[in-house]
Design goal:
This protein has helices at residues 22-33, 45-57, 72-86, 110-138, 150-153, 159-178, 198-201, 206-218, 224-237, 246-257, 259-274, and strands at 13-17, 37-42, 62-66, 92-95, 141-146, 184-189, 241-242. By secondary structure, the chain is α/β, with parallel strands linked by helices. It has one domain: Rossmann fold, CATH 3.40.50. Bound molecules: nicotinamide-adenine-dinucleotide (NAD).
């Protein structure tokens, strides 16, 4: 069977950012389960190593790599070195690393805005900038960008985060158009709530911490492992979007049909649950 007829997620040589925790760790695990090799990238050296050790203990090829996705130079070096580290051309980049910053507009510090934009948006831009041309040149590969239902969901007090995810969605849609016919598939992942460490690792006003933590369990309709599995399947099918949960798919449709009503309902629902 020719290489192009194989499923992209099978036997991939993958770079997964934010692989030290949550959805990134699940992506790394799922790629390995499908016979792939994984470069486990994270800003947290210990967490990246934990993931790589977990995969190697299961018999997979995995290497930990410490890198800040928001730093262009570090990402360029990663792209230069990745093939040499895994011993074969990279076929899959999963731009997953992300952080949460929240609070009412005007109260979120500009420092938190910059932090969130740098990791969530610039991190994905760097991943696409340095890896997409290589995949395009080899005429084969996949790019998964982890956006969020926040890209269209407009949840109050999440402005900085929402802006970054809308940017990631637009970037991914544009990339999909640009790479049509090149042999490179592109998928944007847009989950709603997935139980991970994102709240613990994020920057939220003290008054919102408990609500956010409880929301991670109260509103979670899936797990990180299921999300990773569904997204790799979506990439194999050539789907541009993966909205893994029903609440995200409903919000996506209502927003398009009745945007003003949607804003009112989401605002009032937030006040009800967050008060
Ligand atoms: N958990 C959710 O409910 C949810 C919903 C929608 C989208 N997402 C997105 O999923 C992605 C993964 O988040 P998660 O929920 O697994 O969170 P998480 O906090 O469990 O994992 C994020 C990982 O990214 C790493 N990271 C943070 N900054 C980094 C940087 N500058 N460079 C490299 N690595 C860095 C962290 O060390 C951590 O290991 C994020 O993009 C997030 O926005 C999460």
């Amino acid at each position: 069977m020719s290489r192009k007829k194989l499923r992209l997620s099978t036997g991939a040589a993958a770079v997964v950012t934010g692989a030290g925790s949550g959805i990134g760790r699940s992506f790394a695990y799922e790629v390995a389960k499908r016979g792939g090799a994984v470069l486990c990238v994270d800003i947290d050296e210990i967490k990246a190593q934990e993931t790589a050790d977990m995969l190697t203990s299961l018999g997979s090829q995995a290497v930990a790599y410490t890198c800040d996705v928001g730093d262009a130079k570090q990402m360029e070096v990663l792209a230069d070195k990745a093939e040499g580290i895994l011993g074969r051309p990279i076929t899959l980049i999963i731009n997953n690393a992300g952080v949460g910053a929240g609070g009412p507009i005007g109260e979120v510090s500009l420092e938190d805005w910059h932090w969130c934009l740098n990791v969530n948006l610039w991190g994905v831009i760097h991943g696409c900038h340095f890896f997409a041309p290589r995949l395009k040149a080899q005429g084969y590969g996949g790019i998964i960008n982890v956006a969020s239902a926040a890209a269209f969901g407009a949840a109050p007090e999440m402005t900085a985060y929402n802006v970054t995810k809308a940017g990631v969605l637009s970037l991914t849609e544009t990339l999909a158009a640009e790479l049509t016919g090149t042999g490179v598939k592109v998928t944007a992942l847009c989950p709603t709530v997935v139980p991970t460490n994102i709240v613990n690792n994020g920057r939220l006003p003290a008054a919102r911490q408990e609500f956010a933590k409880s929301a991670m369990t109260r509103f979670a309709l899936t797990t990180a492992d299921i999300v990773a599995r569904k997204t790799l399947d979506a990439l194999d099918r050539g789907n541009l979007y993966m909205l893994p949960q029903i609440d995200g798919r409903i919000a996506w449709r209502i927003k398009r049909i009745a945007p003003r009503l949607y804003a009112k309902v989401i605002g009032e629902t937030y006040r009800l649950f967050a008060s």
